[in-house]
Amino acid sequence: MRVRETARGWTAVWLVVLALTQTAMFVLVWRFAVHSELGQWLDTVALTGNRIGQDRIDGPVDTLLNAMSVVSLLVATAVIGFIALIRGRKALAVTATLLIAGANVSTQLLKYYLTRPDFGVDPERAAAGNSLPSGHTAVAASVAIALILVLPRQVRVAGAFLGAGYAAAAGVATLSAGWHRPSDAVAAYLVVGAWAAAAGLVLLFFQREQAVVEPGDAHRLGAAVLGVAGAVALLGSALALSWLVDRSTVAVEELGRRPLFIGYAGSAAGIAGTIAVVAALVLAVVHRLVPRWKG
């Protein structure tokens, strides 16, 4: 019992660190991407570069984004709650529902209250004001992360890869459609990640005494593959954006096809890499949050 309580304590500490780290990363992304001229320039380059080959992907992008509505979110939330309930996990059903609701409500509140100064970098969209974080991306990511929590361990890794892929596609789609800047999608993932850590703390608090954490239930390989893939994508994004920084004195409309494509592709890699890392962190610890129990 003492060993189990110590393990729970360290898990709780890890979740607090994750929540604080992702919150701090959200603030850094917001301050750089929204409140610095360089950050706005990089976002605008990526958003302008989405025109390259846009006519080829307009159909799938529109289909994906238009499928995300309040009704579809409610249906997905109900399905996730149902999966938890048929597994006999009432606390998990409530927590997963609160994770989805909290992430999406806070995303909308942040988008409404955060300000975006006009540095003259993107006059075409200046009147639209702040768009960070992305609501569509938060919908996809919150459903994907909640799914990792409620799925049985036998299919959890497959669900994590499918969910992360879906959330990444949604984030890149908002960029491809010109609905959101890349920092909007990244910020949305960080909001969801912070809520996921908070949800983990709730699950630990209500964990039953007969719960049994089996080391063999840990998804180390799946989490490692997802995390490494995310880290590689983030590294590629950093290299691409670093290459662009040397050209930041050039107006976006004067840039050629190559820098615009690099800005778009590098930002898309950053979007995909962020959700992959967030999903990997959840997958790595979920066996401690939703363990087996005796009987």
From TrEMBL:
Transmembrane segments: 12-33, 64-85, 92-114, 134-151, 158-180, 186-206, 218-241, 261-286
UniProt keyword terms in alphabetical order: Membrane, Transmembrane, Transmembrane helix
Residues of the Phosphatidic acid phosphatase type 2/haloperoxidase domain: 92-200
Stored SUPFAM superfamilies: Acid phosphatase/Vanadium-dependent haloperoxidase
Pfam family, one: PAP2
Protein name: PAP2 superfamily protein
Annotated organism of origin: Micromonospora sediminicola
Phylogenetic classification of the source organism: Bacteria, Bacillati, Actinomycetota, Actinomycetes, Micromonosporales
